[in-house]
Every structure is written in C-alpha cells, then in structure tokens.
Design a protein that fits this description.
Elements lengths: L7 H14 L4 H19 L9 H13 L4 H8 L11 H10 L5 H10 L3 H5 L6 E2 L4 E4 L2 E2 L5 E2 L8 E4 L2 H13 L19 H15 L15 H12 L4 H8 L4 H8 L6 H16 L2
Antiparallel strand pairs: 1-2, 2-5, 3-4
Helix pairs in contact: 1-2, 5-6, 6-8, 6-10, 11-12
C-alpha cells in the first residue's frame, strides 16, 4: 500500500524539527521559522507534495513580489541553505592575512588556519589555548546576542592543532592585549564579547572593499564565514580525509561536511587516473 503524500505544511514542520536537532544558530532558526510560518505555510501549506507543480511554485514566488517582499528576501525564502559555498582563492586568503587591521588580524588568521566559527572565536577563552601542546580547545561560543554558551552541538566541543603561524600570532596577541574579566582572547574595547555586525561592518567588509575583494557590484565579496570555508578548502587540498575534516570543523555529521564541501573533494584528473588504473588492473589479470 502506498503511503499517503505529505502536505507542504507537514514537510516544513519536519524540516524545522530537523534543523533544531542539528542545533542551527538561533538567528538562523528564527529566519527559517519566519519563512515557513509567515510565507510558505499560509500560502501553499495545504498542497500535497505529490501534486505540487512548477506553476504553483512560480505563483507563490509572484505572490511574494506582489506583497512587496524584497528580491533579496524572496531569494532567501525560495532557495534552500544547501547552496554551494563560495570559497576565497588563495590570493584572496593571502590578501586577508596581509591586509587585516592589527585589531583583528589575530582573529582572522586563527579562523583561516583552524576553521573555527566566528561565534567560537568571539567566545574563545585563553583557558582553551594551550601553547605547550599547540592546541585550541573549543568549549564555548558567543551567540548573536553576545551571550556565552555551549557550542552548537556535542561535536562542536573539540581540540584543534595550531599551525606555527597561529601559535606565533596568538602568543604575540596575548602579550599585547589587556586582561579582561571574561578571559576572552578577542574581546571588544571594554573587555566584553565582540558584536558580530561590528566586526563585519566596521572591519571585515571595509577591508575586503579597500583591497579589491569585491563582486561585480563593487560590494564585499564574502561574509566572515568565508574564512571557515577557506580553512575547509585548505584542509581538503592537503588530502585530509572527510572524517578528520568533520572533526576539525565540529560538524555534527559527516553528511553535513559532504553536503557543504563535497564538491571540493572532486578532482576530474584524479578521477580519470582512477578509472585508467581500474581498467589496467582488470585487463592485466
């Protein structure tokens, strides 16, 4: 007997529960719930998935525009979060390292060589930096409200080796920075948690624009999360296996790692060589 088809509403609610289980950022969950409950479910929630047609989706998109929803917001509502990430080139990564202002260079260098989330860097404590062992232990993070709490998931609690550059940079940063009550590695000017939007709008975005790392419209080409993508691309280029990369990035599952960065593991020349070897081994028998 064929199982009855789910409605768009049921599918939306199941998807939101899945996002909650994966412990997505509070701000991300807030946006997703809004997309589902304010826009999607009231308009097409009653439709069965098996009966959903292209014309229904097109009409839904048109209705958003007719209601005055901005093009940018329409795109966020219509497109899933599994789009292919845009990774900075090596030249762009080197430029960020070289041109980062002194106030945030240590933070950006640490992000590029460890793959830590910006929330983890904003909440990073000196208690987690072990210069003797050359490791950083991630055990807390700062959310969008600058509240210190646990990592996104159990997998978020992890230990990351420091490259020589990170170790040297953090040693120098510790010597030049003032102690603060929260023992934060990267506090703001008054020793509190840095605000994400301040880092992006006052530091990261201007740095990209002033150094020509821009899109066709002349706007900053990347968000700060691109530093994490840069780290992942460097890990993959070194030939590290996906499971190790999952652990370093603190992903809750290998599926999350492959969904986000699977395309970076692709190597057309290597694939051809593999099939050539497969053929040789078979025919030589």
């Amino acid at each position: 007997m064929t199982a009855p088809s789910k409605t768009v509403y049921v599918a939306c609610e199941a998807w939101l529960k899945s996002c909650e289980r994966n412990q997505l950022e509070r701000s991300t969950m807030k946006a997703y719930r809004s997309h589902a409950r304010v826009h999607i479910e009231p308009k097409i929630g009653h439709l069965l998935l098996t009966e959903l047609k292209r014309s229904d989706v097109r009409d839904f998109k048109d209705s958003l525009i007719d209601r005055g929803v901005s093009q940018a917001q329409v795109k966020k509502i219509m497109v899933s979060d599994n789009k292919r990430v845009e990774v900075p080139t090596k030249d762009e990564i080197r430029t960020i390292i070289e041109k980062a202002p002194d106030s945030h260079r240590a933070m950006f260098v640490t992000a590029i060589f460890t793959g830590m989330r910006i929330s983890e860097l904003r909440g990073l404590s000196w208690a987690g930096v072990d210069f003797d062992r050359g490791t950083i232990k991630v055990f807390q993070r700062a959310d969008e409200y600058c509240v210190i709490g646990d990592p996104k998931s159990r997998a978020g609690v992890r230990e990351i080796p420091m490259s020589p550059t990170v170790l040297k940079t953090l040693r120098e940063w510790q010597l030049s920075s003032k102690p603060n009550e929260l023992n934060l590695v990267f506090p703001n000017g008054v020793g509190k948690v840095q605000n994400y939007s301040n880092i992006y709008n006052r530091v990261f975005k201007p740095m990209l624009v002033s150094n020509g790392i821009v899109n066709e419209a002349g706007e900053a080409k990347f968000g700060i999360h691109a530093l994490r993508h840069a780290a992942a691309s460097l890990f993959i280029e070194q030939g590290w296996n996906p499971k190790k990369i999952q652990t370093l990035l603190g992903h809750a599952s290998i599926t999350m790692t492959m969904d986000t960065y699977g395309h970076l593991f692709e190597n057309a020349e290597e694939d051809v060589a593999m099939f050539e070897k497969l053929e040789r081994d078979l025919l030589a028998a």
